[in-house]
């Protein structure tokens, strides 16, 4: 098992690992609340890549990685990842007014 310290390197190598063998590659997230640690693991039973952090800001990066893997799994490993922005394209709902007691 290899702990990779650089986030960009972890994402790049994880995508390469998935594209090499998409049928046997797994992506696992493990969060320990008592320690406040998040461990991400990508493996294909031959090579295992791990990234460990205790920073809350890494959660947004994890969300981007999830979007990358969802795109690769849904559209196939040959898809161009430049269109994956990592941001959810949900419509912003207006705030609901008029609910509750009038003052």
Description:
The chain has 103 residues and is α+β, with helices and mostly antiparallel strands. The protein has helices at residues 7-20, 58-75, and strands spanning 2-3, 26-32, 37-43, 48-53. The protein has a four-stranded mixed beta sheet with strand order 1-4-3-2, with helices on one face. α1 (7-20) runs parallel beside α2 (58-75). The longest helix has 18 residues, at 58-75. InterPro entries: Signal_recog_particle_SRP9/14, SRP9, SRP9-like, SRP9_dom. Belongs to the SRP9 family. Residues 5-66 form the SRP9 domain. It is found in: Cytoplasm.
Please describe the topology of this protein.
Elements: E1 2-3, H1 7-20, E2 26-32, E3 37-43, E4 48-53, H2 58-75
Parallel strand pairs: 1-4
Antiparallel strand pairs: 2-3, 3-4
Give the class from helix and strand content and strand pairing: alpha+beta
Main β sheet profile: 4 strands, mixed
String of helices and strands: EHEEEH
> What is the CA-atom radius of gyration, in angstroms?
18 Å
Alpha-carbon distance between the two ends: 61 Å
Tell me what portion of residues adopts beta-strand conformation. Answer: 15-25%
What is the tally of helical segments? 2
Give the low-confidence spans. Answer: 86-92
pLDDT average, as an integer?
82
- Share of helix, binned: 25-40%
Q: Which strand order do you get reading across the main beta sheet?
A: 1-4-3-2
The rough form would be described as extended
Per DSSP E runs of 2 or more residues, the count of β-strands stands at 4
């Amino acid at each position: 098992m290899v702990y990779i310290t650089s986030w960009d390197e972890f994402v790049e190598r994880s995508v390469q690992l998935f594209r090499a063998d998409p049928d046997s590659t797994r992506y696992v997230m493990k969060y320990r609340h008592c320690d406040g640690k998040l461990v991400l693991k990508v493996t294909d039973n031959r090579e295992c890549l791990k990234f460990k952090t205790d920073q809350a800001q890494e959660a947004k990066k994890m969300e981007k990685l999830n979007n990358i893997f969802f795109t690769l799994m849904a559209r196939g490993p040959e898809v161009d990842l430049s269109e994956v922005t990592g941001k959810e394209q949900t419509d912003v709902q207006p705030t609901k007014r008029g609910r509750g007691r009038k003052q």
